[in-house]
Amino acid sequence: MKDTGISDRLNSLFVNRLNINFDNYEESILDSPLLGNEIGLAARDLIYVFFDIEKEFNIQIPQHDIASGGFNTFNSICEVISKQIKIKLLEPVK
C-alpha cells in the first residue's frame, strides 16, 4: 500500500526540480525506470532528487538501497523513503 503523503511530497520534489508531474501520467509509469526511455532522466537528475529527498524527509538513504534498485522507479523510491522514516522513528532519542 502506497503512502499518499510520501508520494505527494516526492511528486512535488520532481515537479520543483525537474518539472515532471507524475500525476499527469498513467499509474503504470510509477513503476517504469526513471533512467529509461519512457521517463528519460539523466543520472545527474537522480543525484539532485536524491539530495532533495534526504533534505525534505530528513532521512539518510543507504547505499545498499540504491545499489539494489531501490532508487530506480518512483514507487521504489517511495518504498525506500517509507522504510527510512520507519527506521528513524524507531531510533532512540539522543
UniProtKB/TrEMBL annotation:
Species annotation: Anaerobacterium chartisolvens
SUPFAM superfamilies the UniProt entry points to: ACP-like
Q: What is the designated name of this protein?
A: Peptide maturation system acyl carrier-related protein
